[in-house]
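Dear U.,

For the methods section draft, I wanted the exact inputs and outputs in one place so we can describe them consistently. I've listed the two proteins in the order they'll appear in the manuscript figures. Please don't edit the token lines directly; just add comments below if something needs changing.

First protein:
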Amino acid sequence: VAWAGRRARVIGGGIVLAAVCLHFAASLPAVHGVRLNDFPAYWGAGRSVLEGHPEQIYSTRFKWFTNLPVVAVLCTPLGALPYETAWELWWWQSVACFAVLFGLLLFAVHRHFPPLDLPRAAVVAGVFFAFTPVMRRCLMLGQTTPLMVVLFAGVYLLAREGLDLPAGLLLGVVCTIKIPPLLLLPLLAVRR
């Protein structure tokens, strides 16, 4: 990467990200194929809140909704949309999260493990693309994982910059949306 000018790096990175987005766009599952996974639970919980029945978010109607009630409130914008439109919006925000994550990984290497040269960028890309099957699975199920991974990367970058309060607040957001990261808090406390 050092041999290429800034413009060439930006164009090259854009081509790689465009290829990834095209790959995921070509594999967008039919809306009817995601009725029994995570996304329908988020959409349905948001819809229940909008309809004035928040007590129904944990009913058998939304058997996959296992999040805190605040997540149902956060999902109300999705619930306000028709299911098909909400699914496509969710899908594309997840793809965007993967693209942003790749950029954050490159930034982290550039900032904290310099230099970001071609071999290091290739390693980052190799590690990133090694997780493609997991990414596809998250996309197919409509999980919050893509967003959580981007937020975790933000927590890491903020903490590395010594911005503990914003990092902690962002970690709190992650733990509110997805409960399992709470298991990491003792490890962070021991480290400090």
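Second protein (the one for the lower panel):
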Amino acid sequence: PKVLELLASGAPVVRDAAARALIEGGADVVADIQARREHAGDAEKQRLDRVLAELGGADAFKALLDGLASSDEQTARAAALSVRERVSEADARTKKSYAGAVMKALSKRGERSAPHEAALLKILGWCESIDAVPVLLDVVGDDKRAATVRQEAVIALRFALASGVADKAVVDALLDVAAGVDASLARTAVDTV
């Protein structure tokens, strides 16, 4: 739709009005947003991601997750933050669905950038899913992954374990990271323990 072009406008009032119009369009605009996002610049991608986050629903959430793959670090972080409120306010069933979608995205084969993976892990943490613990432990224990990615996994563990008790495998993984050479990552692990 023509309104998508207005998201690239230089006038903030016009961009905001376009975003509101797209959100009111509901799930019907998700495919159009995905198509537009493929050719958008970073600033426009951030605006499109915010619209997807506001739309909510399974299709919009999946589109947002898929879009992370082509995002730079700042855009990926902004996209993750844009869904935080929606995920945090979701009921347990919806959070479980969101967590499943994120874990599915994380399990896809292929090369993922560190910002992409970090954004996925950030979102997974907000889902507060105990089912995510094995996935998070794999990331935490993988020395080949970027420190920022591992740090997001450690933080996500805090959320995933918010309603339960950490078992020995979790404590051992965090202690291993805490004894590591990366001071920032070690500090995050210590704070999590």
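Candidate sentences for the figure legend, describing the second protein: The CA atoms of residues 56 and 93 lie 14 Å apart. The radius of gyration is 18 Å.

Thanks,
Y.
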